Amino acid sequence: MCLLTMFLQAWRDEGLTLSTSSNEACKLYDAILTQYVKWKNDETMGGIEGCISALQAADPNFVMGHMISTGLELVGTASTTRLNERLAGAVRRTVELANAQDITHREKLHVRAMELFSQGDFPKAADAWEDILLDHPTDMTALKFAHDTYFYMGAQLPMRDSVIRVLPHWKPHNPLYRYLNGMLSFGLLETRLYDQAEKVAMEGLALTPDDAWAVHSLAHVYEMRAEVDKSLSFFERTEKDWQSADMLASHNNWHWALNFIEKGQYEAALEIFDSKIFRFCKSSGAMLDIVDACSLLYRLEMEGVCVKDRWQELFRVTRPHSDDHVTLFNDFHFLMVSLGAKDSSTSRRLLEGLQELSKEPGNNQQHHLAGTVGVPMCQAMMEYDQGNHDRAFELLYPLRYKILGIGGSDAQRDLFSQLMVHAAMKSEKKRNQKLGRCLLMERDTVRPNSPLTQRLMRKALVLHD
User: Fold this and answer.
1) Which end of the chain, N or C, is less surrounded by CB atoms within 10 Å?
2) Mean pLDDT, rounded, of the chain
């Protein structure tokens, strides 16, 4: 095959025609998708950003080039079309190009899904990507964007089943086939099928040891089963395989640090924060890295650890995002930092911004949740920070089954379960204290042999007996 048409033809052969006459644009689109799936910037090609610039030069009107570049910025959740006119313009430009060109129905659906995501309509965006997968089950772009969208909604079953549905259509010769194991494993673990999740992730890593998402999935399995020593051994043994996946390395380091918090080895957790997590957070500006830094400090403070000036340093990173309100999950983490940094005006502004958006949420899924989940959660965190533990618990307890909709994983949302337990233990009301002990019994059953749970149980006995 002529080199000039190789990438164009390869996509056609997969039944995934790309509407461009530029083979170079196809090659770069392929490179961007591959880096997205691998969570790794290929520096030999200039990373994702370099590939996007080169793609736009190769074919400035390539619709799917615009879709993937704008879509990636949107799913990064570090910016919003509500405040960022450049990003809003990029969405409009992509839609205009799609309407003006004779492109395939699949490509039009991609653009529609991206536009819906930009409006915060995560459910309909996911539906549009699923419509693509119905007729084009090997479209990894649709599968990966749907996967991430479900994650932001806390839609655990759809996230798992989206991968299961397409698996029979994938064959070993399909590009990126080997990375399906990590995606499936993550869906399995988020639906509590831990044994299956572990098996699938291990099968994937046997084929592709540097699949950072499969590593990440195993980290979750060990976290949810409280297999702390097994997790620590796994990270130490495989570090060289996943640290090069720069877009996910910091998050895997965060999981590594959680093991030390479980064991009560706080200095070791702080060492990972200082040497890896905060360093990545400052350099990348990636939202996943930022919220991990927020979460780790908050968990340590709940454990009674003094984190010194780290809140102030992190506040410089989070403060510019205080008005974003892309996801409630992000908002709660920004609030942790403004509270830790003792910047009450920013904390108040964040809460008031959510209150305003909840009044007219439009089609924005997260803003719909703001009134019922977002605002009371923020209020609870602020009450807890002020030492009003009774009020904090009474705001938190009704949210315990509603919080799934803020997105994230079970392991990430566990922070809010821990906060609820701490508020109950510090409450002066006997009923709240009893409910706190009930929560600990539930936790001990679901996650047996957790050192952190056992530590909290002993603390509750000391406080209330």
Assistant:
1) C
2) 95
pLDDT tens for 91-122 read 999 999 999 999 999 999 999 999 999 999 99
Taking alpha carbons only, the member of 302, 300, 305, 297 closest to residue 277 is 297
**Angle (CA) 38 40 42, round 5°:** 115
Rounded to a whole number of angstroms, the distance between the first and last alpha carbons of the chain is: 79
d(CA 301, CA 317): 19
What is residue 463's predicted lDDT score, i.e. its pLDDT? Answer: 79
Does the predicted TM-score (pTM) go above 0.90? yes
CB atoms within 10 A of CB 368: 17
Do 220 and 211 touch, CB atoms closer than 8 A? no
**Does the pLDDT value for residue 6 go beyond 90?**
no
Task: Please indicate, yes or no, whether residues 341 and 208 belong to a single structural domain of this protein.
Answer: no
The dihedral over CA atoms of 329, 333, 335, 336, expressed in degrees to the nearest 10, equals 140
Same structural domain, 32 and 98: yes
CATH code where residue 335 lies: 1.25.40
329 and 415 fall within a common domain:
yes
24, exposed or middle or buried, with CB in 10 Å at 0-12, 13-18, 19+? Answer: middle
Average pLDDT of the segment spanning 111-137: 98
Angle between helices 410-426 and 451-464 (to 10 degrees): 10
21-30 contact pairs (CB < 8 A, 24+): 21/59, 22/58, 22/59, 22/62, 24/54, 24/58, 24/59, 25/55, 25/58, 25/59, 25/62, 25/65, 28/52, 28/54, 28/55, 28/58, 28/65, 29/55, 29/62, 29/64, 29/65, 29/68, 30/175
Radius of gyration of the chain (CA): 22
Indicate if 341 and 427 belong to the same structural domain: yes
Question: CA angle, 81 as apex, 79 and 84 as ends, to 5°?
Answer: 65
Query: Counting Cβ atoms within 10 Å, is residue 46 exposed (0-12), middle (13-18) or buried (19+)?
Result: middle
Residue with tokens 């405040």: 83
Of the candidates 98, 99, 154, which has an alpha carbon nearest to the alpha carbon of residue 123?
154
pLDDT in tens, 194-226: 999 999 999 999 999 999 999 999 999 999 999
Closest CA to 119 of 388, 363, 395: 363
Structural domain that includes position 18 = 1-40+51-69+79-155
